[in-house]
Amino acid sequence: MLVVNGRWIEDGSSCTIVNVYAPALANQRNELWETLQALVMQTGTESICIISDFNVIREENERVGRAGCWNRGEIEKFNEFIEGSDLVKVQLVGRRFTWYRPDGSCKSKLDRLLVNSTWLNKWSGSILRGGKRSFSDHVPIYIEGNAKDWGPKPFKFFNQWVQHPSYKSVVEKMWLSSPKQGWAGFVIKEKLKEVKMELKE
Hints:
By secondary structure, the chain is an alpha+beta fold. It has five helices and eleven strands, in the order E-E-H-E-E-H-E-E-E-E-E-H-E-E-H-H. The model has no long low-confidence stretch (mean pLDDT 84).
């Protein structure tokens, strides 16, 4: 288990990222669930994410090709750990399964990303993306998020606006009624800003 704790430069908030390769034996996995749950409790309200090959499925439909080769007790223990730690799974996109037997006879969803509510509130758009299979029997997985603040969104102009009966009069009114002082680029920017606000009304 690899645990990295640090602070995000932009806001100083703490974050813990955990990478785990879960054991193949059920009793050892149960010990790992206890260790991870204690770690989650220790982080309190800090952001935490656990990305791992958990070596166990959460539902029967997450394994295909080995009829009856799953253990209800192991599934329940894993789900109890997730729910008891107040963790939630981040949706996997691009792949239904993350592990494939080399001969293709079996495939399972073993790799996943679990996060707490603080993480979700900060990065609400987080997803887990499954990549292309290569030499490994696991597909690579990547965390993606779209919550980065890149500043104000650019103004979008829609061509159909010019078909609106009052389009020309609205633009002319706003352009002429807002005198600005300064260099030409600044004046144009400020005038466009006011036209934008009026058009959005």
